[in-house]
Amino acid sequence: MADIKAADVAQLRKGTGAGMMDCKKALAESDGDFEAAKDWLRKKGLAGAGKRSGRLAEQGAIDVVVAGGIGAIAELTAETDFVAKSEKFAGTVSELAQLAVDLVTDDIGESPFQGITVNDFVTQLAATLGENVALGRVVVFETANGIVDGYRHVQNERGTIGVLVDLGGVDPTDLKAREVAHDIALHVASAAPRYLSKDDVPEDVIAKERAVFEEIGRNEGKPEAAMVKIIEGRLNGFFKDNCLLEQGFVREPKTTISQLLVGLGSDATVRRFARIKIGEE
Questions:
Q1: 267 or 14: which leads in pLDDT
Q2: Of 251, 218, 255, which is closest to residue 234 (Cα–Cα)?
Q3: 269 vs 149, 168, 217, 245, CA distance in Å?
Q4: Per the CATH hierarchy, to which homologous superfamily does domain 59-195+257-277 belong?
Q5: Exposed e or buried b for every residue in 2-12, given b needs 16+ CB within 10 A?
Q6: Which CATH number describes the domain made up of 6-47?
Q7: For the segment 107-141, what is each residue's pLDDT rounded down to a tens digit?
């Protein structure tokens, strides 16, 4: 069976307008063959209706729902912001986020919705609106011993960024902890970290950054004896820019996110986060 990568799924989704999970299944069923996967989607009626399937869905809307220890982000894509901010479109994405929370799953494509499945409903919605509309990314967090918080950034009358944060090692009833969890969610929306901590940065990414920093240093004529220290300093700068726990809090840049957690106790930690922005993979 072919190794199905997220980038392959995203590429197929852009080319067909089908939902994320449908594209993943199509590639699996077609052993990774893109053309065969497109045919599979077309045969299943999931590739968008006729001419719409060739148009990119780079607009859309996002909603975030948090209830108790469960949070969900749902994305519905479209071609224009005019459609994305319509009442019907916004209502649908809100209901999908709530459905993901209710079912505690990010795989909602075949789940019952409005008397049919989510996928069938979205296909009908595309026909009604006359645009390539597709179920995009869905993320669900659940915790039994911490706090899940979320944030939705609204722009041009629709949600464009959705964030979830899972804060562990804290009492869910602690108001201060809940405030910090929400502050971190706001921060993630603004700062767009790529990784949680330095330990989460893949070795190949670090190796690439080292090579880039070394080349920059040599082009700047830095002394060879100081090169190692220069590279390490710039690598630390990379971590501060890209790792959530190393980043300076957007409201107090001199305070890192790690330092923001200190007042919540020694066990307080961000276990994971998710950020989805319309138009970005």
A1: 267
A2: 218
A3: 14, 5, 36, 9
A4: Elongation factor Ts, dimerisation domain (3.30.479.20)
A5: eebeeebbeeb
A6: 1.10.8.10
A7: 999 999 999 999 999 999 998 988 889 999 999 99
